[in-house]
Amino acid sequence: MGLTKATIEVLDEDAIQPGKLERFLDVQFNPTEYTLSKGAQIAEIGIYGIDSPILQFVRGQNQRLTLDLYFDTSRGGLDESAADVTDLTEPFFQLVKMQPATHAPPRIQFTWGLGLSFKAIVESVQQKFTLFNPNGVPLRATLSMVFREYKTLEDQLAELKLKSADHTKVHVVRRGETLSAIATEQYGDPAQWRAIADFNPEVANPRRPAPGTLLVIPPLEEFRRSEGNLR
After folding, report:
1. 40 CB contacts (<8 Å, ≥6 apart)?
2. What distance in Å separates the CA atoms of residue 136 and residue 203, rounded to the nearest whole number?
3. Average of per-residue pLDDT values in the chain
């Protein structure tokens, strides 16, 4: 059984340019390692008189794939007839450039056998040349690449299967927020502001609570049961 080579497939048909950017790009050598990373954007909400700010999840961040690809045309020496290594690296460099037909870098799929399949847009490419023939033509290169995960809104909603909150939460009111806006953020429905107001009867102004107010955000099912309106 032969070695499975990593490949990059250009998913945007309009970005393909024969002779410049083909549909499939085969790496010369498989990477020796790769890194997958993902983060979350967290907001700090400062409240006067407490020791640490309240942390609130804002949104997730794209997963990133980082790896190095190696290219070598030296054939073990400095033969002046050896091909310029940029002939091999240039198609990969095109992946981060705006393409004429799409006005954007293309969406791609990085696949390595059964272990890695990553749909992404290339965020950055850094070319490092480390070997040259006597005429200064580069013969060896390392491409450090960062791929940023690409998912449509429909894909993400299908994966998350978002539902009404099923756990009680605490929300710290930000300046200018209304209960309708908070209900939209928490439940996806501004009309559910009453659920929040009824669970927080001590709030002086239920429509526009003061900044820094701690609000209990109840599960909608719990609110409906309390109203005798469970469906």
Report:
1. 57, 58, 59, 60, 61
2. 73
3. 86
